[in-house]
Amino acid sequence: MYKSLGSSSASTSTTSNQSASYSNPYTDPIPPSPPPTHKLVYPTYPDVSLKKLPFYKIEETLLKPCSLQPNGNGRFQEQNFTFYLTPGQSSDISNSSYRSEQGKPEYRKQIQMRFSLLETSCEQEDNFPSSICVKVNGKLCPLPNPIPTNKPGAEPKRPPKPINITPLCKLSSTTANYINVSWAVEVGRAHTVSVYQVDNLTYKDLLDQLKAKGQRQPDYTRALIKEKLADQDQEIATTSCKVTLACPLGKMRMNAPCRASTCDHLQCFDAQLYLQMNEKKPKWVCPVCNKPALVENLLVDGFFLELIRSPRLPTDEHEIVLHNDGTWDPLPPKKDDYTQLTSKPVPPKPKVMDTLSVDDSDDNTPTPTPGPSGLGGTKRLSSESVDCITLDSDSEDEAEPPPKKRMRINSSTESQSNNPPGSPDLICLDDD
Question: Which of 213, 238, 319, 426 matches a 20 to 30 Å C-alpha distance to 376?
Fold first, then answer.
């Protein structure tokens, strides 16, 4: 009896619970979705294109340009990003490692991170957000040092450079790489971050590409010379102009004369020196006209290449004269060069040095001494017999003489020329 009552009570409680928890999906209202944590201010993957870097060839895009989204109204924000490597990418990067001159491990193929402004109207250069700090896989990433500024209250900006994060990445296809970026929000300015696999090129690689591109035809330069030296003004007639074959960068004769297609001058510069300087500090500015001279616009000039290799040009001559008919001649030597060739050095006349000996005794007999006028019946003695003039005094009343001192004077050519003829050059006085 008690068991049946207990079972019935349990069954009734079970049915009551089931009836209470039952809901009809057709009649019940749809519950509201949970509110989002934050509203997206910028598109996640904007259509931003970055400027190409001549010394880095992009092979793979590991993370497309992604917006730095502010979360909340705080000035300082933080965001995390993730990218993966394929087995082929990880093996290519690992196999490209080498040791630098300082013994540091380097990679020919690198993982490169770039920051830029969120602007889709044109190609963007590298641009860092304010107060940026980057960590890759929990390790602090070194950034370019800020450039100091003299403006009061202005924050120093970092130079626009890409960041090589290869040493901080996990070169494996099974684990992800994490990037943590913290920055300060600026009103009206947004930034993006992107990651690429690039091939690090040297100036030699770019020089080989420039030479493989071909050269500007010599006839094109000749036509340009004729056009520039044409008599456009009747009052001023220009029939020739002087051009140097020395590079304005290294002041030495060019080996690969080139100039950009955007330049309108005849003067060239050496391609190797230009690429070497831009490898250390990329400016890409023409050293002649200070206008932009990008690597894709450079071209070796065939006309000036013929001049450098011509046997008519002396090896020590770096300047030529261009004529209005497209021909050229070596620069004629200056007048100073002619005088140096014609004039011969005059040998100096031999100098005769005469020395006399004069003895002063008690007899007080006058001894003739040579003078400038040659009077008094003096007789010149040869330098072989007499070396110096000696004055002797035999008086007993005099005190003990001081120790003998000899003075040796090397007379120069100027002193000999200033002395009158016949005067002795070396005089020694001995007092006994």
Answer: 426
Task: In whole angstroms, give the CA distance from residue 150 to residue 196.
Answer: 35
The beta strands (E) that lie in 309-374 are given as: 319-323, 328-330
Q: How far is CA 263 from CA 235, 249, 274, 326, 344, in A?
A: 27, 17, 15, 19, 48
Q: Give residue 365's pLDDT.
A: 47
pLDDT at residue 403 is higher than 60: no
Interatomic CA distance for residues 243 and 284, integer angstroms: 23
Judge whether residue 423 has pLDDT over 60: no
> Model pTM?
0.64
Residue 212: its H or E element: helix 203-212
Q: Parallel, antiparallel, or unpaired: how do β-strands 215-216 and 298-301 relate? A: parallel
Is residue 6 pLDDT above 50, yes or no? Answer: no
Among 131, 123, 300, 321, residue whose Cα is nearest residue 209 = 300
The gap from C-alpha 207 to its chain's centroid, in whole angstroms, comes to: 17
Residues 337 and 345: beta-carbon distance below 8 Å: no
User: What pLDDT sits at residue 236?
Assistant: 60
| Residue 151: both structure tokens together | 């403006």
Q: In whole angstroms, give the CA distance from residue 148 to residue 188.
A: 24
Q: Which two tokens stand for residue 122?
A: 């044109």
pLDDT on residue 347: 56
Quote the CA–CA distance of 6 and 353 in Å, as a whole number.
Answer: 154
Using left for φ > 0, alpha for ψ between -120 and 50, and beta otherwise, residue 79 falls in beta
Whether 16 shows a pLDDT value over 50: the answer reads: no
- Categorize the per-residue pLDDT at 406 as very low, low, confident or very high, splitting at 50, 70 and 90: low
Position 106: which residue type? Answer: E
The pair phi, psi for residue 5, each rounded to 5°, is -65, -40
